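Renewal narrative, Specific Aim 1. Our central claim is that a sequence can be written position by position from structural information alone. The example that follows is taken directly from our test logs and has not been curated for this report. It begins with the structure tokens describing the chain, in the order in which they were read.
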């Protein structure tokens, strides 16, 4: 239930006439026309115009004559010549009573999660009324702030005091939507409550999330099983929970991913071959294995599409042994006879 704060010390202005004008009936003119109404326009100089003169329009609605042709006039009636041109300027006494002039309605406030403590705090900000909106009214000297869970009916006062246009709501429940309203206050009253601004505190557990929706990695062709495919594909977790990665997608059977690291590697028995395929497509999945209330849950929290490009490697042909074998040259034996020719 909302608890209201009161007891402002600023005194309200005394109630007194602000401007005085005097009306003096004009004498009858030939006793022929009777004034029925005075139409009074507010003077241009407003409250402080007690020396101003008002232009009075005469509404000659009814003509009365008695039996001898004289005009019939009331106690304060004024008979005018119907042929007299234009309006008449007369002094008029007007007593202006003071009325409460509280501030107008503020615009809907902005409600966002507090950066440092998003689970239990919400930051609220609003825009002050302009000089035009406050024209002729006492200045705003305070603001009221109230809030409630969107699912509740009762409002809670935020105990805000001052003329700044922002505050922080504390002690809120995690993972909850709140409605917030503000109003301006001056010495003559409280303005209307603004429309409700809405904001949510952060869930008790915030799921893991990849920084992007796509990523690209590369691997040289002919890389051996277990070779890393570029840098690891990792997600963020604000509570620093252990994260669990898995692999899906068109070419998931060509690669593996580290369970807790997000590192993609070449799968055993697979060899990337640029001449056969230049790129692969896989999806890396991540989960902190908890739901929003911090209970065990194996649902996937986020995914990222990864394109793996295969780079070409020079592969010159291997040298093959020639099938031709030269025939060894036979050498003639040397003669053992010296000094004579053989016969």
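The sequence written for that structure reads:
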């Amino acid at each position: 239930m909302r608890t209201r704060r009161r007891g402002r010390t600023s005194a309200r202005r005394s109630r007194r006439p602000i401007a005085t004008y005097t009306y003096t009936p004009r004498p009858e003119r030939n006793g022929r026309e009777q004034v029925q109404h005075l139409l009074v326009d507010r003077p241009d100089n407003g409250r402080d115009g007690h020396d101003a003169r008002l232009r009075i329009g005469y509404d000659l609605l009814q003509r009365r004559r008695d039996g001898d042709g004289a005009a019939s006039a009331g106690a304060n009636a004024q008979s005018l010549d119907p042929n007299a041109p234009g309006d008449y300027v007369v002094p008029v006494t007007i007593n202006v009573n003071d009325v409460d002039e509280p501030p107008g309605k503020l615009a809907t406030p902005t409600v966002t999660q507090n950066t440092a403590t998003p689970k239990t705090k919400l930051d609220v900000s609003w825009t002050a009324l302009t000089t035009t909106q406050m024209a002729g009214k006492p200045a705003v000297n305070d603001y009221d702030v109230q809030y409630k869970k969107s699912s509740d009916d009762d409002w809670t006062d935020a105990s805000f005091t001052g003329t700044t246009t922002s505050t922080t709501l504390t002690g809120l429940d995690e993972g909850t939507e709140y409605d917030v309203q503000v109003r301006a206050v001056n010495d003559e009253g409280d303005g209307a409550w603004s429309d409700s601004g809405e904001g949510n505190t952060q869930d008790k557990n915030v799921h893991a999330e990849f920084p992007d929706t796509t990523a690209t990695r590369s691997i040289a062709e002919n890389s051996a099983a277990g070779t890393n495919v570029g840098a690891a594909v990792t997600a963020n977790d604000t509570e620093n929970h252990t994260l669990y990665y898995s692999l899906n997608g068109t070419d998931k059977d060509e690669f593996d991913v580290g369970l807790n690291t997000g590192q993609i590697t070449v799968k055993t028995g697979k060899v990337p071959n640029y001449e056969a395929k230049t790129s692969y497509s896989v999806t890396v999945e991540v989960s902190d294995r908890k739901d929003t209330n911090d209970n065990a849950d194996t649902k996937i929290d986020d995914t990222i599409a990864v394109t793996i490009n295969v780079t070409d490697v020079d592969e010159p042909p291997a040298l093959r042994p020639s099938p031709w074998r030269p025939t060894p040259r036979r050498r003639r034996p040397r003669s053992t006879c010296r000094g004579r020719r053989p016969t």
